[in-house]
Amino acid sequence: MDNSAQIDYWNGPAGQKWVRDADRLDKMLRPFLDAVIGAGKPRAGEIVTDIGCGGGALSLEVAGKGAIATGVDVSQPLIDVARRRAAVSAPGTRFVVADASDWIPETAADLIVSRFGVMFFADPVRAFSNIRKGVAPGGRMAFVCWRPLAENEWALAPIIAAMPFLREAPKSPEPGAPGPFAFGQREHIDRILTQAGWRSIRISSWDGLIELPGAAAPETAEFMLEIGPLSRTISEQGLDPVKIRDALVARVQSLADAEGRTRLKAATWIVEASA
Q1: pLDDT tens profile 96-141
Q2: Does 239 fall in a domain?
Q3: Per the domain annotation, does 57 fall within a domain?
Q4: Beta-carbon-side half-sphere exposure of residue 94 (alpha carbons within 13 Å)
Q5: Which residue, 78, 174, 200, 201, is most buried by CB atoms nearer than 10 A?
């Protein structure tokens, strides 16, 4: 299993972008943090592991419930953010730079949680098997992941707006290939978790609107250029984002509500399982 490409990605420019936008991203993704907390129901005194913790928002929320949280992520820049935040609000929360597909906690967890942090493993069956080894008997898991790109307007709309400027249409990844939409199919998730030894698997849909960052269209367009599938496409094709910005601004203006907010459709799976 080789997760080196993802490790390089999240420790490079992409990780730095997430560091710069950590607060805005956490605000945008707040509904999904609440969904994971609602599914996992962390309790005071429980030991909780947050997989792909990023800047630590979910770990710190768990700690606020009285649980003992450890966040794990491959990105040193994002772990640095998480540690700075924890020093202010939850000093007992621990953050580890590690690949969850290999890492085993010192103390078995009662609960595994993740907010969009489990879709990037090169070998997800092996990864989830390893994660299960770090869970106490009777432990449980709750995570959120994106459904297919076509169902997520927040990610698709920028690509459609930029299409006239792309060298070619973005290539669809191989089914199940590591990436934000790798767990788009319910059957794929069920198969992975079953093969990894998880039981009582429950997969439910979450559909709603999320508000993109930005007080005005140019600011929201800039965010679209920095974060998400369009950002990766621009990088892969070596494009000049300046040529795309005006089209994005116009698209955002057409999508914004009367108050100037850009709230677009998001579609995810909420996944629960027992060890």
Answers
A1: 999 999 999 999 999 999 999 999 999 999 999 999 999 999 999 9
A2: no
A3: yes
A4: 12
A5: 78
